[in-house]
Every structure is written in structure tokens, then in C-alpha cells.
Write a structure and sequence with these properties.
By secondary structure, the chain is of the alpha/beta class. About 45% of the residues lie in helices and about 15% in strands. Strands 1, 2, 3, 4, 5, 6, 7, 8 and 9 form a nine-stranded mixed sheet that branches. The relative contact order is 0.11.
Length: about 325
């Protein structure tokens, strides 16, 4: 049996998939299986999966009808044989020692989950390096660190999980922000979480990726995910309610930033009213950046002024706002 099962959901990524797979096959940690889940691709992605499987017997390919990212990940989890799970998105790639690094700190610390940081990659933008950080924390501290999102995010990638954490957890079908929906459910099962700011994963924000696509109704799932998380956290860790509320406000900003570029969107008023209602909380909260607070003041004056700031700063690509 392999020690690690690496799960890669695949959908219409023929341009990026070979680099992703090559980066996994070059891993210095070699005791793994690579599960490629072709989620009904209509390009050559499925054929590419099959071609790589012929070259390396550690590769398993699943071909299924298109049901979305959550379904593809869940299909991989269902057949995974490893003691530990890792997720890699098919348009990203990883450093050669990522799995060796994560496995070594997880075993050394007797942890349930190990995390490294990501390089947030945009075309034409300089990659930001993280300050050095390493710690082994409990569930409560891990939630705070992930929700503050200074160098570790709620993304499922860049992490190594004990497979048992998914015994009763699956990614929600038909939802966007699937990572945010499950992360707290996973963390509350952990006794120890090893967190490093070492950047081992190249997370690409492409023009057609979920993180850069234009607004659609499913973007409201981001808000729903953090409302769900708030309810869990308020019950189990009431002194983290402030950071959980901050993430709800962040989610509203995330949706607004996409929505406001669409002329005469009637739902803008609902989002704007929520943020204005929580303006004092936002302006006083240290987790929001200076630019985000300036944008809050602009939103209070006129949403068109906020829109102008959004365009000028190009926040979706520069990541100036948190």
C-alpha cells in the first residue's frame, strides 16, 4: 500500500496538465499513488491522463461524467489506499520536495495535518515570499491562523492529511468555495497541526480559474461557507467569533468585488447594506488592510466610488485587499 494518495481532479486543462503531473512524478518522496480523476473533460485531458498512466504504474486514472471539482475529489478519496491524502489542482504544480517536506514534519510532530504555504502566481506579477514561520498548534490556533490568512489559507492544496480525517467528511457537491465548506470540519478532528510558511506549491490565478472568473450566482457560496463556519466556531470556540465574523465580512467583500463590475446588478444593494452595517467592525479590525478600509469608506459614500477604486487597483490580480 502507498503511504500517500495524491488526488488531482482534471477538467479541460490539456495546456497545463503535463506540467502538473511531471511535478508530481519528480517528487523526492516516491511512496505514493497518483489518482487522476478526469471529470468529463471535452479536450485531450483524458488522453493525457491515460498516456501518463502507461508510463508509471503508480498512476491510477478515473474517467467519470462531469459533476464538478467536489465530485472529482470525492471520487479520488473513495478509492485512495494511502494512509495520508494530498490534493493538487491540475493547472498548478509543486516543488520536488513538497510531499517529503510535509510528510517529514507530520511524522516528526505526530500531527494529524501538515501545511505548507503557496506561491500565489499571476501572469506578469512578482511572486511574493513569505516571512519564516513554523509551529505546531491545536485546532483553535489553526482556525485563527487560517482565517487570518497571512501565509496559510483555507485551500485544500499544500496540505497533507491523515486519511481518517475524511472518514465522515466529503466536499459538498455543486458548491463553489468547497475548501471553505470543509476546512473547519477537518480541523476540529485534529489534535496537532504542523504549520510552516515554506512555499512549496505554485497556485496559479488564471483568467478562467475560479478565483478570477466573472461574477456568477455560485459566488454566494463563499458567504454561505463562512456563515456555516461561524456557527460551528461560535459553538466550539466562542472567543474566535471575531475572526469568524471577519471572514464573513471578507466573503461579502469577495462577492462585491466581482459583482460590482456588472452594471445595474440589483443584489449589490444587499451586499453593500451588510458591509455598511458592519462598517465599525471592519474599520477597527486589524485583519483588514489599509486599502480595504479605504474601500469601505468609499463604499459608504457611493458604490460607484468603490467601483472606481476597484478598477484602479485591479485588486483581483494584485491581491491588495484582504
Amino acid at each position: 500500500m502507498p503511504i500517500i494518495s495524491i488526488i488531482v481532479p482534471v477538467y479541460n486543462v490539456e495546456k497545463y496538465l503535463p506540467k502538473c503531473i511531471h511535478s508530481i512524478l519528480k517528487q523526492t518522496f516516491t511512496d505514493y499513488e497518483l489518482i487522476l480523476v478526469n471529470d468529463g473533460s471535452t479536450d485531450q485531458s483524458g488522453d493525457i491522463c491515460n498516456q501518463f498512466a502507461e508510463l508509471d504504474n503508480r498512476i491510477i486514472v478515473i474517467h467519470k461524467k462531469n459533476e464538478g471539482l467536489s465530485s472529482a475529489r470525492n471520487a479520488g478519496i473513495d478509492i485512495a489506499r494511502g494512509m495520508f491524502l494530498s490534493f493538487v489542482d491540475s493547472d498548478d504544480y509543486i516543488q520536488e520536495d513538497m510531499h517529503e517536506f510535509l510528510y517529514s514534519i507530520l511524522i516528526r510532530e505526530d500531527a494529524d495535518l501538515a501545511m505548507c504555504s503557496l506561491y500565489n502566481c499571476y501572469y506578469g506579477k512578482k511572486i511574493k515570499k513569505n516571512p519564516t514561520y513554523y509551529n505546531v498548534v491545536n485546532t483553535k490556533d489553526a482556525i485563527r491562523i487560517l482565517f487570518e490568512s497571512e501565509f496559510i489559507s483555507v485551500n485544500s492544496v499544500g496540505k497533507l492529511y491523515k486519511k481518517s480525517l475524511f472518514n465522515k467528511v466529503r466536499f459538498p457537491m455543486g458548491k463553489q468555495a468547497e475548501d471553505a465548506f470543509v476546512i473547519v470540519e477537518i480541523l476540529i478532528q485534529c489534535q496537532k497541526i504542523a504549520i510552516s510558511s515554506e512555499q512549496k506549491y505554485y497556485y496559479w490565478h488564471r483568467n478562467n480559474s475560479i478565483t478570477t472568473k466573472k461574477f456568477n450566482k455560485k459566488d454566494f457560496d463563499v458567504i454561505k461557507a463562512y456563515i456555516k463556519n461561524y456557527k460551528i466556531i461560535a459553538n466550539k470556540f466562542p472567543d474566535l467569533k471575531t475572526v469568524a465574523k471577519m471572514r464573513i465580512c471578507w466573503a461579502y467583500f469577495f462577492v462585491l468585488d466581482k459583482m460590482i463590475l456588472i452594471p445595474s446588478n440589483d443584489e449589490i444593494k444587499v451586499i453593500r447594506n451588510f458591509l455598511i452595517k458592519h462598517r465599525i467592525f471592519i474599520l477597527k479590525n486589524h485583519s483588514f488592510t489599509f486599502m480595504r478600509k479605504i474601500s469601505m469608506l468609499a463604499l459608504m459614500c457611493d458604490y460607484r466610488l468603490y467601483q472606481t477604486l476597484l478598477v484602479i487597483n485591479n485588486i483581483k490580480n494584485r491581491n491588495l485587499y484582504k
